[in-house]
């Protein structure tokens, strides 16, 4: 049989689907502790998490949800997130993990665009859920986690209590959609793409590169509405490691790391800076930490040195886009060998450097970093133009400039895309500019990132005033607060009467603005 005749359906007798990860973990690790939910003080074994997951799956089925239906969930970092992800996986439902930093209007718009007909929410976000209920009559059921449940929502625990714990009997395939992941868009709604079961089952190689074993104690402190937090939840189940799940608060973080003897976790540079600024950090016993993992933001050398001196000397870093999953990893040994590199490609990852014409760059030559792996998606949801731009030639074009040396180590050299990375969150400048230009009194504007010790980059805006109208910083902030997630709102707002510096083709020369205002606050 020719290779071209082998289809997805017959490439192997077995398959990699997400639901099987938890089912297998319950069999292998049974009564060992799987999750400690810090916000509620509850501890669950692998078997208990699996049984609760199955009960949720049957409860959703009893409400009429069937394979391919779309269910959104809005939840902080707590044990129920693991149950929700895997219940959806076992039923073949498609999830929308919602970023709780989004405005309620953005949440409703996303759910409408993706066809959600159900919503599970943490009661701390009841106001957002109520606005969804008012705007989207097609959402048939609301399920509330926690106390102070509104009377129009069903109780999560009641749904579990009234359902059996046997394994759901639904055929799910590797290529079936699992959930929508959201990433920043340049205009309107955030871009989204559908992650398949294969994309989400293929996380093991990244954690093998982090040297994870069942003797580890993981901490999931990254928000689990995104791929990174989800991956850390899955890693604990896949490797049989105990997982401490919590929202990030610097003081509480230090207390829990010491109490639970956490061994490895994922932070961004902003989180590390907050932890180091916490009073009494030096008095905490953090000797259990064998590694800290960083990704998603710039990591200034002075901050890195403080982290190694005060928190943990061993640092792992990885590189990738949300669309690709992790592509490279730099281990502590790698950093000793190539200190400025973002690492070498992971197992099954294919990374290369391309020239503008698409040809392969030579070692040491700067070009665009492109990559792919089993975790890489193939297109954006309902966005063919952006899909055509990003997914070309069977690779994802990252928009990052870099080089690869003869040993296969990758080095970042800049960004092609006009994107600001602040506290690990991606902010596209054009999205913020569009919002600002809708405010009377603003004749022109440019949004750009300024260096920031805490956030890596700080969202900043230079506004050219309309001479016929009055405009204030407070008015700009209030306008943005109603229309943008908090991390997208400019932290530095500057005013000027002069035109923005532009090229002959009209493009704003933002590098000049960064140079001019680099000391602004």
Describe, in short, the structure shown.
The chain is α/β, with parallel strands linked by helices and 521 residues long. Helix content is 31%, strand content 26%. The chain has 17 helices and 26 strands.
Report on this model:
- It is a single chain.
- The chain is an alpha/beta fold and 521 residues long.
- 31% of the residues lie in helices and 26% in strands.
- The chain is built from 17 helices and 26 strands.
- The strands form 6 sheets. A 9-stranded mixed β-sheet has the order 2-1-11-10-12-13-14-15-16. It has a 5-stranded parallel β-sheet with strand order 4-3-5-6-7, with helices on both faces. Strands 17, 18, 19, 20 and 21 form a 5-stranded antiparallel β-sheet that branches.
- Strand 13 (291-294), helix 12 (301-310) and strand 14 form a beta-alpha-beta unit.
- Helix 1 runs parallel beside helix 9.
- The longest helix is centred in the N-terminal third of the chain and has 17 residues, at 46-62.
- It is globular, with a radius of gyration of 23 Å.
- 45% of the residues are buried.
- The mean pLDDT is 91.
């Amino acid at each position: 049989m020719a290779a071209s005749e082998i289809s997805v359906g017959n490439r192997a007798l077995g398959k990699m689907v997400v639901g099987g990860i938890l089912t297998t973990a319950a069999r292998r690790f049974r009564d060992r502790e799987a999750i400690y939910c810090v916000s509620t003080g509850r501890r669950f074994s692998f078997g208990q998490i699996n049984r609760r997951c199955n009960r949720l799956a049957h409860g959703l089925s009893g409400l009429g949800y069937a394979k391919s239906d779309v269910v959104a969930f809005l939840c902080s970092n707590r044990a129920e997130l693991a149950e929700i992800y895997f219940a959806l996986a076992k039923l073949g439902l498609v999830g929308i993990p919602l970023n709780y930093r989004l405005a309620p209007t953005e949440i409703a718009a996303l759910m409408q665009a993706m066809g959600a007909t159900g919503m599970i929410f943490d009661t701390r976000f009841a106001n957002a859920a109520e606005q969804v209920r008012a705007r989207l009559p097609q959402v048939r059921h609301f399920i509330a986690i926690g106390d102070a449940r509104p009377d129009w929502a069903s109780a999560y625990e009641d749904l579990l209590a009234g359902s059996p714990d046997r394994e759901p009997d639904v055929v799910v395939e590797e290529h079936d959609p699992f959930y929508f992941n959201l990433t920043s868009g340049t205009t309107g709604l955030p871009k989204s793409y559908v992650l398949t079961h294969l994309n989400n089952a293929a996380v093991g190689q990244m954690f093998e590169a982090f040297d994870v074993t069942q003797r580890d104690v993981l901490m999931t402190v990254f928000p689990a509405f995104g791929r990174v937090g989800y991956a850390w939840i899955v890693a604990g189940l896949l490797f049989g490691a105990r997982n401490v799940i919590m929202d990030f608060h610097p003081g509480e973080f230090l207390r829990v790391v010491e109490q639970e003897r956490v061994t490895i976790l994922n932070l961004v540079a902003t989180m590390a800076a907050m932890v180091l600024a916490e009073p009494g950090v030096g008095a905490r016993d953090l000797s259990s930490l064998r590694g800290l993992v960083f990704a998603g933001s710039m990591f200034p050398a002075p901050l890195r040195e403080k982290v190694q001196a005060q928190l943990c000397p061993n640092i792992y870093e990885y590189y990738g886009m949300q669309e690709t999953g992790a592509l490279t990893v730099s281990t502590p040994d790698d950093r000793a060998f190539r200190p400025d590199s973002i690492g070498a490609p992971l197992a099954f990852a294919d990374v290369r450097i391309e020239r503008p014409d698409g040809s392969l760059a030579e070692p040491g030559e700067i070009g665009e970093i492109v990559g792919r792996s089993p975790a890489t998606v193939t297109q954006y949801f309902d966005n063919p133009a952006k899909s055509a731009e990003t997914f070309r030639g069977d690779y994802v074009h990252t928009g990052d400039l870099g080089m690869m040396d003869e040993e296969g180590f990758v080095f970042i050299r800049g960004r092609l895309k006009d994107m600001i990375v602040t506290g690990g969150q991606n902010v596209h400048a054009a999205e913020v500019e569009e919002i600002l230009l809708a405010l009377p009194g603003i004749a022109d504007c440019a949004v750009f990132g300024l260096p920031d010790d805490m956030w890596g980059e700080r969202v900043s805006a230079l506004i050219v005033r309309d001479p016929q109208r009055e405009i204030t910083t407070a008015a700009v902030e209030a306008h943005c607060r109603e229309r943008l997630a908090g991390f997208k709102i400019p932290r530095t707002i500057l005013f000027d009467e002069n035109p923005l510096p532009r090229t002959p083709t009209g493009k704003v020369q933002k590098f000049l603005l960064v140079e001019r205002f680099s000391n602004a606050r």
